[in-house]
C-alpha cells in the first residue's frame, strides 16, 4: 500500500543551525502539507503546497521556514535558524485532490529536538 | 473558524468492553470530519471519515462514528476493545468546505486494560 515516508525519524540539532526535513509523498498525489505537534499540544497546520507553490500557510510559518519540491518526488521543509521552540514532531502529508471529505495521508513523523 | 473539541484527554477501558471517544465540532457549513489514530512511534492513520452519504460511518478495525448534526457531535465507538487499540485518537475537521487544511482536536489517549 502506498505510504508517505519521512526521513530522518529523529533529528537533534544545535540552536541556530539549519535543518531540512524530508518527505516522499504518495506518488500520484498533488497536494502536500506539513504539520507539527509540540509536545503536549495539538497537531497544527504549517503549510500547504500545490503546483510548485505555497497555497496556504499559518502564522507559525514565518521567514525561517521554507518548503520545496526539488525533484518531483521529495518534499522538504527547511528551518533556517532553529530555535528551542521549534522542537516538535513534524508530520508530512499528501492528498490526491482538494475538496470535501478528502483525507490527508500522513507520514510517521520526524521528531526534531533543538538543543 | 472550524474547530473540534475532544471531551476526554484520557479514556481507560477493559479489554472486551465498549469504547466511546467523544468529539464535538463547530462548523459553519457541512463539515468534513475524520478520525485519525496514532500508535506509539507510528504516523497518523485514518480510521474513518464522514462523507454525508450516511450518518453512521464504519472504519477500520471495527470502529464506527455517528454524525449527529443536531448535537454537533461525531463520537467514535467500538463494541469491544482490544489491547491493540491502545493509542491516541484525533478528531479532525477540514477548515474550509472545499479545502484540505485540517484542524485537529487535542487528542484522546485510549488505554486498554487486560
Q: Which key phrases capture this entry?
A:
heterodimer, A: Immunoglobulin-like, 7-stranded mixed β-sheet, B: 114 residues, mainly beta, Immunoglobulin-like, 6-stranded mixed β-sheet, 4-stranded antiparallel β-sheet
Task: Describe the overall structure.
The complex is a heterodimer of chains A (115) and B (114). Helix content of chain A is 0%, strand content 50%. With 115 residues, chain A is an all-beta fold. Chain A has one domain: Immunoglobulins (Immunoglobulin-like). In chain A, the strands form two sheets. In chain A, strands 2, 4, 5, 6, 9, 10 and 11 form a seven-stranded mixed sheet that branches. The radius of gyration of chain A is 13 Å and the shape is globular. Chain B has a single domain (3-113), classed as Immunoglobulin-like, CATH 2.60.40.10. In chain B, 0% of the residues lie in helices and 53% in strands. Chain B contains no helices and twelve strands. Chain B has strands at 3-6, 10-14, 19-21, 23-26, 33-38, 44-50, 56-58, 64-68, 73-78, 87-94, 102-104, 108-113. Chain B is globular, with a radius of gyration of 13 Å. Classes of the chains: A mainly beta (115), B mainly beta (114). Chains A and B meet through strand 4, strand 5, strand 9 and strand 10 of A and strand 6 and strand 11 of B.
Amino acid at each position: 500500500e502506498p505510504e508517505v515516508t519521512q526521513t530522518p525519524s529523529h533529528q537533534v540539532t544545535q540552536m541556530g543551525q539549519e535543518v531540512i526535513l524530508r518527505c516522499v509523498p504518495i506518488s500520484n498525489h498533488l497536494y502536500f502539507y506539513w504539520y507539527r505537534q509540540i509536545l503536549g499540544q495539538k497537531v497544527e497546520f504549517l503549510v500547504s503546497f500545490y503546483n510548485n507553490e505555497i497555497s496556504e500557510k499559518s502564522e507559525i510559518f514565518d521567514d525561517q521556514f521554507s518548503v520545496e519540491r526539488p525533484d518531483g518526488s521529495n518534499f522538504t521543509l527547511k528551518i533556517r535558524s532553529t530555535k528551542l521552540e521549534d522542537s516538535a514532531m513534524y508530520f508530512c502529508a499528501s492528498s490526491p485532490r482538494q475538496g470535501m471529505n478528502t483525507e490527508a495521508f500522513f507520514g510517521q513523523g520526524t521528531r526534531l529536538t533543538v538543543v | 473558524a472550524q474547530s473540534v473539541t475532544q471531551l476526554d484527554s484520557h479514556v481507560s477501558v477493559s479489554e472486551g468492553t465498549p469504547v466511546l471517544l467523544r468529539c464535538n465540532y463547530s462548523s459553519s457549513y457541512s463539515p468534513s470530519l475524520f478520525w485519525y489514530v496514532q500508535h506509539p512511534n507510528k504516523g497518523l492513520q485514518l480510521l474513518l471519515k464522514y462523507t454525508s452519504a450516511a450518518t453512521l460511518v464504519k472504519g477500520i478495525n471495527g470502529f464506527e462514528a455517528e454524525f449527529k448534526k443536531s448535537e454537533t457531535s461525531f463520537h467514535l465507538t467500538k463494541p469491544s476493545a482490544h489491547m491493540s487499540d491502545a493509542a491516541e485518537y484525533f478528531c479532525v475537521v477540514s477548515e474550509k468546505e472545499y479545502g484540505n487544511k485540517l484542524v485537529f482536536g487535542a487528542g484522546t489517549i485510549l488505554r486498554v486494560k487486560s
